[in-house]
Amino acid sequence: MSRADLARGFNAGALSQALALLPARADTYEARALLLAIGLQESGLTERVQRVTGGGDGPARGLLQFERGGGVVGVLNHPASRDLALHVCTARRLPSVLSSVVWDELASDDVLAFAFGRLLLMTDPRRLPALGDEHGAWAYYLRCWRPGKPHPDRWPENYAAALAALG
């Protein structure tokens, strides 16, 4: 299956379900493209638990690879996202909004992962980059995710696949 086909499936499924939990203004082509590209960049849209060299699990969970003390805590506490994060957690029937509970659930709940991804994007005060603005999308990703190993060589292919998935 191609990257674009994989992204197309998530766009129609988990991503659409996640965005339905948020205000209508959160569901834009720009947001979808960026979230799908980030998912491809971070996990290939296949790994829900970060793998580390030499074996074992890393500190990130979910298709968008959130760390408990980073993105999860950020979304739960940021003024632009915290109320919506509580709403999402309630809708996904999480027993608590503790960062540890959310972080654990990200490994098995793709809808939660994409919802938290969209909420993390909402914490950046800048506008989302226009569709096709690969460099702007890369800069947005770097600001919001702050990846330890960003792999800029993979971004063009992943961003192109995300755009293709939107048809």
Give the helices and strands, then pairings.
Elements: H1 3-20, H2 29-43, E1 49-51, E2 57-61, E3 66-67, H3 68-77, H4 82-91, H5 99-106, H6 110-122, H7 134-145, H8 155-166
Antiparallel strand pairs: 1-2, 2-3
Question: Could you describe the 3D structure shown?
Answer:
The chain is mostly helical and 167 residues long. It has 8 helices and 3 strands; from the N terminus they run ααβββαααααα. The chain has helices at 3-20, 29-43, 68-77, 82-91, 99-106, 110-122, 134-145, 155-166; strands at residues 49-51, 57-61, 66-67. The chain has a 3-stranded antiparallel beta sheet. Strand 1 (49-51) and strand 2 (57-61) form a beta hairpin. The protein is globular, with a radius of gyration of 14 Å. The two termini are 16 Å apart. The mean pLDDT is 96.
Summarize this structure as a short list of keywords or feature phrases:
mainly alpha, 8 helices, 3 strands, about 170 residues, three-stranded antiparallel beta sheet, about 60% helix, about 5% strand
Brief rundown of the structure:
This protein has helices spanning 3-20, 29-43, 68-77, 82-91, 99-106, 110-122, 134-145, 155-166; strands at 49-51, 57-61, 66-67. By secondary structure, the protein is mainly alpha-helical.
Helix fraction by DSSP (H/I, runs of at least 4): 55-70%
Give the low-confidence spans. none
Number of strands: 3
Structural class: mainly alpha
How many alpha or pi helices? Answer: 8
**Distance N terminus to C terminus?**
16 Å
Strand ordering within the main sheet: 1-2-3
Strand content: 5-15%
The description of the largest β-sheet is: 3 strands, antiparallel
Evaluate the radius of gyration: 14 Å
Indicate the overall shape. globular
Averaged pLDDT: 96
SSE string:
HHEEEHHHHHH
